[in-house]
Each structure stands twice: as C-alpha cells, then as structure tokens.
UniProtKB/TrEMBL annotation:
It comes from Triticum aestivum. GO terms for biological process: protein ubiquitination. Residues 14-138 form the MATH domain. Residues 176-239 form the BTB domain. Belongs to the Tdpoz family. It holds the Pfam family MATH_2. InterPro entries: BACK_BPM_SPOP, BPM1-6, BTB/POZ_dom, MATH/TRAF_dom, SKP1/BTB/POZ_sf, TRAF-like. Pathway: Protein modification; protein ubiquitination. This is BTB domain-containing protein.
Amino acid sequence: MRASASLCTPSVVRGMHTFKISSYNLQRSIGVGRYLSSATFDVGGYFWRIEYYPDGEMEMKIGDYAYISLDFVSTNSEVRASFEIRLVDQANKLPPLVLLSQKMLIVFRSHPPPYVGKDFLQPSLYLQDDSLMIECSITFLAESKVAVTTTSIDIQVPPSNLSNNLGELLKAGEETNITFEVRGESFHAHKIVLAMRSPVFKAALFGPMGDRIRRTMIIEGIQPAIFSALLHFIYTDSLPSMGHLYGDNGEEMVKHLVMAADRYAMERMKVICENILCKNLNVQNVTTTLDLANCYHCNQLKSACLEFITSPDRVQDVVASEGYAKLKRSCPAIIADIFERATKSHKI
C-alpha cells in the first residue's frame, strides 16, 4: 500500500513600523481634530499609515485626551489583518503601553475604509526629551500553502575548509616556488595559486612574456603589509582581521588595498575594500575617497561618494571643505560629475 500525506499551512506576513514624534508639547498646539501623520509604510504589499491627534479627535468634556488611528491606504485592495499600536518608553523603564489592539483578524478594505481608532489620556510618562515613540505591528494571512509531506534523513555536511587549508599552506611556506622581495621583506608563495587567482600573476609567471623558471620577483610601489594582505586574500578569499583597519591609519591601508587589488585584477577584493570605505564616509574623507574611486575604476564607491556629497544635509559642508577645494583643482571632471548627479536628483 502506498500512503501519502499533505499539509496546509497559512502564510503569515508580519511587519512593524516605528513613528517618532519630536517636540511633542509644541505640536500639541495644532488643535482638536488635526493630526500628525506617519510616513506611509508597506507590510506585505499593503500600505498603512498612523494618524495621531495630540489634542484629540474631538472636544472632551472631562480629561486631557489624545487620539490615535490606523489607516489602510492601499487602493482597490482588501486584506484580513490584526494589529497592535503601543507606546514605547525610550528610557526602557516602563513596559510598552498598548493604545490600540485587535487580536482577531478583521477586514481592511479601500472602500469603505474601516474606522479604527481610540482615545486615551495624554502619555506624559512616555515622553523622553519631549519626544514620543510609537510602534505599530501588523499581521495578516497571505494565501495558504499546501505541500506534500515526506520523510527524509539529512546528513550534516561539514563546511568547506579549503580556504583555511590554503591559508595554512601560505603560512607554513611549504613547497613554495616563487619569492617576492618587497622593500627588504621576502614573501614565499606558489605560482599555480597566484596564477589561478590573478590574471596579472598568470601573465607574469606563465604567459608568453612570462618567465616560467623565475624563482624571485621584485615588487615595486607597494608596502610589505599591503602585499601580505594581498597574498592572504589570494589564498583565503578574505582579508586579514579587519579590527585594525578603522580610523585614519586603517582608512589609508584600505585605500592601498584598493590600489593593490586594481593592480593585480583582484575584483572581489577591490569591491570588499570599496564596501569598507563606503561604510566610513564622512565630510572630511569623502572627496579623497571619490578621487581614489575615480582613479581606480571603483564605480560603486564613486556612486556612493556622489550620493553622499549631493545629500542636502551635507553638500554645503563638503563644498566648504579643504578636500573639495583640492579636488576641484586636481580633477575638475569629477566636479562636473557631482553637479550632474545633484541635478538629476533635484537636490541643487
């Protein structure tokens, strides 16, 4: 006899939006019936908005009340959802205070929209530096899924340790057949590994113009620490420990790694370094980083620098910086790129 089984499971979609109101007491003066609106947020393809009435939705004879509501703002849509709106103590001293909650699923539709709101006393205990933090959680059921259930036995496969093995091979220096002389320091490596990972090394060691019997190669224009990190990446596909690569000295080292990666056509290494520099952009370093990105064909980093510079809250500080003045003198073409990006973004 052949037996089979199937299982129907609901597909649950959950999302949360945080709405912070600053200068709360100042904004209380907007008047009864007027509200502060959150940005429209998306949960599973449906759009919602929180409306907060700091002076209440209507006049109350007794007590000082505010009012909050959840609006379903998707067009021509319908969904069954549950929700909870709560106040959050930013000092983490008080538990969340639920203002509005619906545990059972109710129908939200565009026409007519549901009326979901509630009055509550002014939340003075939850004000922190005159700001109020509101969280809204929404849960709804998407289309149920039916699947045939089967029984299987999985064998745990250990992760690959190839990169660790190659790293140990480099560290031990066993069976090496090429030595690099870099500013008085020697580095031993394996030609076949270098050729496999870098087209530049492949051409130098095995190409028509290369020297297959060469045992020593002098490397100019690169620091020993940078060349060591390059070899580490070639063997392990990862940079050495990055804990020391932050701050001004670390930033300069990463920039030298970009140059080395470009020199030896190590594209993945270059993109990793681009990502590190991108995460540490600031007004003081963005122009020098942009110059580097332009010189060494780091298109993603260049785009991030242009986006950073043309941001409305930073552009004036960057333009007033010494680095921007130097960049304008040394590479006016990049300045044209900056203004082109700003124009396309309608930021200046």
